[in-house]
Amino acid sequence: MVGKIVILDDRSDSLGFLLDQVLKPQGYETLVAKDTEECLHQGLWENPDLIILASQFLSASTLAIHRTIQSRLPDIPVIITASYGSRELAEEALNQGVSSCILKPFTAEEVKGAIEGTLKGAPEKEALEEEVREERITPPREVVRKAGYVHAIGKSMISILEMEKVLTRIVEGAIYLAAADEGSLLLVEMEDRFEIRAARARGEKHARPLQEEVEDGVATQVVNTGMPQRQRGPREHEWSEMKTGHLVEHLLYVPLVARNEVIAVLCLFNRDADRPFQESDLDNLVALADYAAIALENAQLFENLLQSYEDLKEIREGERPQQPPWGIERRKGERRVEERRKGERRVGERRQEERRTAERRQGETPESLQVERRQEERRKGERRQEERREDERRKGDRRQAERRKGGRRADLPWAKASESEEAKTALPPEENLVDETRRSEVAEKLVGRVSHYYNRIGVAVIEVTDTIKVGDTIHIKGGIRDFEQTIDSMEIEHQKVEVATKGQSIGLQVIEKVRETDLVYKVG
Asked: What pTM did the predictor assign?
């Protein structure tokens, strides 16, 4: 018998090896899952014989994934293959319940042997399967396994709020648990009137939503007694006869009870006379019916909530606008309206100005545009000059403040300065500060202009207009630049020089960023 295997690919590089070299040549039916949730879903609905956890690294997270699979699918064996890992973790995985843990380097024969040994299992398993085929009984292992699935299927139902999806999920879960040929879900309209809301016929892959009224004597008996019914014998079933035109041999009806009232009936059918429903199937469906009733109630409440929201929305859209409240809220509303109007007014004025400017420029000649551009540039230059003068004035004020601060510190008791030091820090009269600043400016001599600046290496190219040499102190001034530095070295065509004369261009490392056209003065 060909086995069905699910491969959980946990970012492994051996997936192609497993499929092409091991599984496909042996004829195994394979399913690939990209994450743990998809693996659990396939393990629940596809009923595989083996799960292969193909991992890149055998780590604690790999063992955590195996524990999750083992807790949800306790009867499906797991084999772990890993490209990298330690023997200690492999032993821990085996102690945890993994059937086999294979680490690289491994061959196709080793993987085949591990899979065959896991699938064959003990001899009594094959004997039990043969007994099931002959006597048509459900093995105890399968009963326990399906009972463990009830909780997982019930949780998947409760997590859905859309009514149609809940109805179809209930039918599909019930058919899976009981291995039935067909199934349907009847909602109770009256005591003897029902409405089919979901059904799946034999041969169909998924359940489909329906909405048809039917009469069913067995369903009426279930509603009256509140007890499930399991019957045998050929009979015509209204839904089956109407849709597929055949007789059913075995029926299983389970009520869905909410608030001590039967709200729906779950119906399952088998056509073959030699496939009756067993007591274990009834127990599992009774447990599943509790989850289904909760899921139906939740979906109905959600639909009512959405309907109430839509009704309230229609009522609010149809109402006339209310009068603004009095007091503080009214004044807040008036302020918001006034601010909105001001904003709209400003936007309108700006757009009108832009429109007038565009119209004026369209009507002007190119000569007038050039004149206007030159005037704008002149105004910008005047603004820059004014900013430069203001910056120089602030620097002068700052220097004066520093001098005054130094004079005040010299008068403190703990500042025991000598007469020579006091003479050095003596502050000249305020009326002489302007003359001193002017004398310092006169002492500076223009020696060059910045023609280029390399920002990445901090080197400026200076066109020399007067002689400068290494060791001179220079003062660089520009639009926003104003600093002094000593010339440590300079280069002409990548050759270091000590002196540069008029007409030469030198490369100089500067301590601050400069711009083209900045002027260079020699101090002293």
From this structure: 0.39
